[in-house]
Design a protein that fits this description.
Distance between the termini: 48 Å
Strand order of the largest sheet: 11-10-9-12-13-14
Number of domains: 2
Shape: elongated
Structural class: alpha/beta
Helix content: 25-40%
């Protein structure tokens, strides 16, 4: 019953695009009238039957393949700290460019293919969009009328189905664009409109549907999901090659995913910091008044640099040794010199903060280790937040206790182990 509305399109997908169909059937399809179009979290695909029936058959086929691509390319498990709107635009550019190369028809009102990004990764496209925003930012607050809209390259997102008490999926009541945010629904799926649009943004971007729903689970669960997807994609590619119909660009896109995993941690960190500072606008913090009054995401007040950065350094000796081997201090100094924060505060910790001092950009040195023993991030993160920083960078092995709630500012974990933190962005220092 759940996939009746997609049955005809799924059959055509199987006949003409068997690679995509194989991955489609690896997902659970759920009909839901409370969303605008389609959504996916990499495991499930939600479909609004009314919207889907209103599409011609060729666009229904594309819509299914579109959601499959978001799963295949890890868009639901990566970029967890990206701005939801611009992250979705980046993901849709990647997906629709790939689909158009394989003969799929892209609806004229959806995010259009852009061959300048052909072969790029999700993260690279997002970084390029952030660069363009820095060079040509949106109108300042009050100078432009907020746009209404907001995921699959098809339409604006509404709250996705939430698991019921019996473990089954059920629909979450929809919200209008003018409704107050529901505190029980993640902000990324509340249906907030996009930020005020700079003049270089194509018309199709102004009312996108945020169909990429970030996978909600532990770092271990995310890692298991990515491993499962890798196996499914590898099998689908092998079957397609055996049948002589391997999809164009998919092998390269999958290989690029592996390259992202191997990316130098300091390059990733530099991109992360660059995205937080965009000329006159500070996207490290959102303008709460704009969110309350207009249901829109807007950057905070004028800030040409980050105000304050807190560097949390795990005090265990093994962590210091690994970081020194990776020339951690040298790379961080280069990154901080580019970011030009007004103040840098260094804290060393294990279960609590032992040492706190200020330093200047380019002058950070690895402090003397304070010992070992257990590690807890609860008190150190609380102390770091008391400084009201623009961003927290934490060098650690991620072997410790985490607080239930993430800090209210961006956090980047520089981990010397393959582990991932339960929140924030994690880079692996190798």
């Amino acid at each position: 019953m759940a996939d009746l509305c997609t049955a005809t399109a799924a059959v055509r997908l199987m006949l003409f695009y068997p690679f995509w169909c194989e991955l489609y059937y690896s997902m659970k399809v759920i009909e839901d009238y409370t969303i605008r179009t389609l959504q996916t979290d990499g495991v499930r695909m939600w479909v609004n039957p009314t919207f889907f029936a209103g599409l011609s058959l060729e666009y229904r086929i594309t819509a299914l393949a579109h959601e499959v691509c978001h799963k295949m390319l890890f868009h639901c498990t990566r970029g967890l700290d990206f701005d939801p709107y611009w992250g979705n635009v980046a993901a849709d550019i990647i997906v629709n460019t790939l689909l158009s190369k394989n003969g799929f028809k892209i609806h004229p009102t959806w995010v259009q293919p852009d061959m300048q990004y052909d072969g790029w990764t999700f993260e690279a496209v997002y970084a390029d969009l952030m660069k363009k925003l820095k060079q040509n930012p949106p109108p300042k607050q009050g100078q432009g009328k907020p746009q209404q809209g907001g995921g699959s390259g098809q339409d604006q997102g509404q709250p996705q189905p939430q698991p019921g008490k019996d473990g089954k999926d059920k629909g979450t009541p929809g919200k209008g664009a003018g409704d107050k945010p529901d505190k029980n629904v993640p902000e990324s799926i509340q249906g907030n409109g996009p930020p005020a649009m700079p003049n270089w943004v194509p018309e199709q971007w102004k009312d996108i549907n945020r169909d990429v729903q970030k996978f909600k689970g532990t770092p271990e669960a995310r890692e298991r999901l990515e491993q499962k997807i890798e196996v499914e994609v590898a099998n689908a590619i092998a079957n397609a090659r055996a049948a002589g119909n391997a999809p164009a660009g998919v092998v390269g896109a999958v290989d690029a995913l592996r390259e992202v995993k191997k990316e130098n941690w300091h390059d990733h960190t530099a991109r992360f910091m660059q995205a937080l500072t965009m000329n006159e606008y500070n996207w490290a913090r959102f303008d709460r008044r704009a969110m309350d009054q207009y249901d829109m995401i807007a950057p905070d007040v004028f800030s040409p640099t980050l105000e304050k950065i807190v560097l949390l350094v795990d005090a265990s000796g093994s962590c210091f040794a690994a970081a020194q081997q990776a020339n951690f201090a040298g790379h961080i100094n280069n990154i901080l010199s580019e970011a030009r924060p007004r103040k840098i505060i260094v804290m060393t910790f294990d279960t609590k903060v032992h040492l706190t001092y200020e330093t200047d950009a380019g002058m950070f040195e690895m402090p003397t280790p304070m010992g070992g023993g257990g590690t807890s991030f609860i008190e150190p993160l609380m102390r770091a937040q008391e400084e009201n920083p623009s961003v927290i960078i934490c060098l650690t092995d991620l072997e410790g206790s985490f607080p239930n709630d993430p800090p209210d500012c961006p956090i980047l974990w520089a981990s010397i182990t393959p582990h991932n933190a339960p929140f924030g962005e994690t880079v692996h220092v190798e």
